[in-house]
Amino acid sequence: MMRAWILPMLLVLSGSFVAAGLLLRGSTGAAVALLLVFLLLAGVNSPLIFPRSIGALEAQRRSAVDGRPVVFWRPGCVYCLRLRIRLGRSARRLHWVDIWRDADGAAAVRAVNDGNETVPTLIVAGRPYVNPDPAWVREQLSPSA
What would the DSSP string read from start to end of 53-71? Predict the structure, then answer.
């Protein structure tokens, strides 16, 4: 779990050090603006922006029941972030599995990607899709899902 927070923590620490340097030089406005940018970047790269992750086995079980796709992702992945942002509120209609928190999820991704942990990987109706277009993913969500 700690691995998912390394990048956000580094962004906050880096921003704090740079902002402190600007404060010491008397640039209060620039320091505040820079710190806010770093905090925003940390938030976007944190697990907080994604819907609550569940385990791979639970996601696959739920997907078999409701037909919703399963998304395997990891924090810090720009392609996962792009998918999440472009899906908007529809993202809650998918089952999200953080492969850094779930060993079964990481194994499932490696199994369909020749041993690589390439994300986002979606499982739709039992078929894997690597880094699909967000518009296509939205089409896969049935209105009842």
Answer: P--HHHHHHHHHHH---EE
The DSSP code sequence of 38-50 is HHHHHHHTSGGGS
CA-based nearest residue to 79, from 41, 16, 130: 130
**Cα–Cα distance, 57 to 54 (Å, whole number):** 8
Query: How far is Cα 5 from Cα 18, in angstroms, rounded to an integer?
Result: 20
Upstream peptide bond of 143 is cis (omega within 30 degrees of 0):
no
More confidently predicted of 139 and 44:
139
> Residue 142 carries which side chain, given as an amino acid letter?
S
Instruction: Give which of 19, 76, 18, 89 is closest to 43, Cα–Cα.
Output: 76
**Cβ neighbours, 10 Å, residue 4:** 19
Residue 67 falls in which region: left (phi positive, over 0), alpha (psi -120 to 50) or beta: left
Provide the pLDDT for residue 52.
82
Task: Report the relative pairing of strands 121-124 and 127-130 from DSSP bridges.
Answer: antiparallel
Whether the predicted pLDDT of 73 surpasses 90 = yes
Q: How far apart are CA 107 and CA 50, in angstroms?
A: 21
